[in-house]
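Protein Record: Sequence and Backbone Structure Tokens
======================================================

Structure line: whole-number tokens from a learned vocabulary of local backbone shapes, matched to residues.

Purpose: to set a sequence beside its fold so the mapping can be learned.

___
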Amino acid sequence: MASLATTGGLFLENLAIALKALWANKLRSMLTILGILIGVAAVIAVVSIVQGFFFAVNNLFKDLGSGWVRVVSTRPPGEEGRKLGEIKLTRADAEALLDSGHEVQNVAPLMFGASTVKKGTREVSTNIAGTVAPYQDIVGFYAGKGRFFTDIDDSHRRKVCVVGSKVAEDLELPDDPTGSTVTIGGAEFMVIGMMEKRGELIGVALDDFVFVPYGAALNLFGQEREGNTILEIAIRSSDRLDLARAQIIDVLRRSHRLKPDQPDDFRLVSQEQLVGTINTISKYSTLVAGSVAGVALFVGGIGIMNIMLVSVTERTREIGVRKAVGARRANIMLQFLIEAVVLTIIGGALGVALGVGAGRLVTMLFPKIPQAHVPIWAIVSGLGVSALVGILFGVFPAARAAKLDPIESLRYE
């Protein structure tokens, strides 16, 4: 216990000496830590913006739930793909999946087209999405005002629609647009609801669309546009995702009359795959940003070492005096090593603060960029790497100071 107290006291004593020395040379100390400060600030700013982007996208896809699967038509590459002829998903595929068995709970075909929507003298060009009633439950996206359409709306191909909030705003519809009429592609539609507001993501307006019943969309765009259809599927249990995928693939292959040696003309995407892909991209983006900042930290570390070597030379007589009154080599080495680490930690802390501020400033100046998100691990890593740089680049000057001969040091002018 006494030894521990002595070690602690020695550390505090050397820390006080180091801080006093750094305070005596404030300008030089600030210039010395500039490299570390810029390196850490750069990596924190980049990581906060990248993480903010992926945090926003991740949340968007997590809303889909783990029991969601999307099927899109895809032409296989090469000669095999060319031999398959027309490739598309249809409402008949959706009905075949619904009748297929236990793993598929619900299916919604979703067809896209673009059209002009008018209200009085106002008009907007927007995306028209044709789908069926279960769509909102499958993707967890609901009407915030009014209602979504029903199976009857779809089977009778009623000219009703549910607008996105941006379309309602652009057309200057009332706050609750239910009961208003708009013209889509020359046909009059009644607005029965407005979807929940989702805002923007990297400049893409998530509320810039109009939903119409699938049958009404076929009337608008023609049967041939059905080739743009994708299938949104809710499975009964996310624990049996592999079984559900196998069932979906089997049903669609039979529906498309594919031979055993022919590749699939469709592709399945699940929420887990999307989130996994996003996380992988996020990891590599952060790694690249960290590598670039690592170069700045290396240069900053060399700057620390150079300044510490100059400091050792300038304070040779001081080192001689300390040794003459009993300081050991370990004391001298610890003193200069602490100075180097304190410099880099101060640089790292200022860099973290500057990086957080820079990330937030960028998202304030460019509102279409998602809010910056600074993970705790980035702050801890920034400070930890700063301390490590101080140790690595401070050892050599500290060892040089410790090796100085006390008599020669006292004679140094």
About this structure: The mean pLDDT is 84.
